[in-house]
What does this fold into?
Amino acid sequence: MKAETNLVNSVNLKTNLLYIPLVIVLLLIPLGGEYITYLTGLALLFGIAALSLNVLLGYTGLLSFGHALFFGCGAYTAGMLVKHLSITSIEILVPTSIITSVILALLVGIVCVRHTRIYFTMLTIAISQLFYALAHKLRPITGGDDGIRIYSTHVFGHEVASITEFYYYILVAFFLCLFCLRIILRSPFGLTLQAIRDSELRARFAGISIIKYRLAAFVVSGLFAGIAGSMYALFLGQISPDDVLSVMRSGEFVAMTLLGGYTSFIGPIVGSFVFTYLKAVISSAALYWYLVFGILIVSIVIFVPTGLMGEIEKRRRTG
Amino acid sequence: MISQIVNGLIFASILFLVATGLTIIFGILRVVNFAHGSFYLMGVFIAYSITRFSSEPALHLAAPFIAGFVAGVVGIAFERGLLKNVYGRGELFELLLTYGMIFVFMDIFRILWGSMPVSDPTITFKLGIISLGGTMIPLYNIYLILIAAVLATFLWFLLSKTKVGMVIRATSFDSEVTSAFGVNVSWVYALTFFLGCFLAGFAGGLMLPVTGAWIGLDVDMLILALVVLVVGGMGSIKGALVASILIGLIRSFGISMFPAIELAIVYLIMIVVLIVKPSGLFGGAEVES
Amino acid sequence: MDLLNTEALKKYFGEVHAVDGVSLTLRDAELLSVVGPNGSGKTTLVNLISGALKPDSGKVYFEGRDITGIPPHKRVKMGIGRSFQIPAIYENLTTLDSLLVSIFSNTNLSHVFYKTKDKFEKAKEEAINLLETLNIPLKLVGELPHGQRKLLDVAMALSLKPKLILLDEPTAGISLDERDEVMQTIVGFIRNQKIAAIIVEHDMDIVAEYSDRVIVMHEGRVLKEGGKEILDDGEVRRILIGD
It folds into this structure.
């Protein structure tokens, strides 16, 4: 079926069934203790962010090196509402983060999507660095270098008591995002994005308004990154510009996507899990994480440019 | 006022050297070398190790040149050994490869030189201070600006008046045609990488007495060099010169006048240039349709 | 009413007068071939009509409407499709998906985020029919041989159900013995659907075989216009063979 079409009607039931054991494992993660739960929660949130980045990279063919901007927008929206207005309800914070991320993505997108290739990449770096610098310096609003602490969060009036409880909220958000993105990317809209990626010229002469579709992809991408950022702020209880807005964070999202495979829908999630666990293991063993990370990126780029899932899918297809 | 101008020019000189390396590499290989800040940082660290041997001023003055040379050789090794493998796969992979190298270098520096900042102002003390319109300025700072100016002139001469420069420019124009004329394009690429990384390492060496080095400076330097690259026009040395001076002075005056947002202003300039003229102030062709 | 009119179209690239005052008309369902030596302005003319380039002066009218200032993707929606000398195709999509992109665009479904089954089944059926008619296999675009890549490029334009299709060297790069078959497939479909076409072509046998009318261009101008018989004209032959 794969060779025929990417649209919804060809989703293979069998491959979907393969995911059931994985879902069960994710549900049982809290049995592994608080640390594993915490790590998996992070991996899920970074997974959403990397997935959202891949709407641009894998599907639209635009490399953003400033995606932390939208992750940070979600995080700071939640953080600032807690700090200044003492709102601690997730059901208010996350939707508000969605709204601010969409607005920001729309404004930034209008500027960025007129450019492609390295110019697009440079613009995303410049704009995210601008906000990073502002977050650093506008101390009264953003808390400056120290960032913002969030001491407690509520769901419909009930205080979230443990990491485990929050983990399940993340899991719900994760599956919702996954579901929505899968539908979006397998829709005519998603197909149109891929067409623009492969041949802007042909897409234009198929009657498609390129800029509008790139902008829409940019906004979709920003929206889901915003959700991830917002939940990240509440999950960790602490944010700072270096953690959520820096170019290093943007680079990590790119690395996760590359690692898992930008040609595959679930590649970025695989990437975020491998990345998060590997980083935890290597850092805790007091080894040189950056060295491993760097060598990993270099090797992937040279030897398996389509990433882990890209390679697996290729092998599955060829036999 | 004068000290701000001098500080601005020091910063501009360093930025010019680093960004010129970046712009030459981009101009010829069409690769934005994200690891360029790492070659700068490497330069500072190597100069630091060299100056451990003695406090002899001549050694301290020679250190940046040696540091630049070593950085250049590492640059060639990187280009021939790794980057070469992904030519033709598109700029995404070239960019990501150099991005990965940032981290490799970062930990290698940590292993070799530790995590603490290093600095050695010996040469600044030995050369002494001169008075410029009533302001006391270290002579070394003046030397730094002059040597950057000399190097800028030398580069201009190399690229526009010599045979090597002609071959380099021809390769940037059309590598296939150039190779058809019997030029070994691989060597031009390697040479270009040497030159670009030499400039970054040399700039780093020069800054050892002024700011020194710390892990993290590589990324900061990279980002500022990217700003210069974009504002000046990717591939344009003249653009790099003008943009470096512009950014250098803005930073220097910005730090004293509006310290809170001086970086924000720099990024804003980059954004405005990218929007209004993606090819930069002095960019040539290479703009998308 | 004519389907297409151009009025004194001019396009200069610096000193080069690529198109220098070309006026032509095209009726419904007419097949017009544009011939001429390399650099005579044929492709530039196609680019001006399709909107890929803006003329320095002159006008383009489509169904009586001035479309000179209208961007290409909107001209497509009005019914002007085109193919390219070097096929502009989606390397990583399947042939079916490639046509679906055009069909969705044409039926204003491209922006749809979800799926309403009946509409998509219809689009899919339409795409598969077109693939079968044009003998294009259902596979990844990147795996197609050259001839079929050219054909797919044309098919993507045809799936937009245009009133006019601009074919820029549809047989370029295709081996001599395959050319006829490719042209027969394309022209058969165009005739059947009563689509008008402007064909830029080098192969004079193909031109003679498949066009209703011929325009000979030289140095940006229309040198001669008429039936196929003008291909035998002495001056025309001299220019074309001098190519």
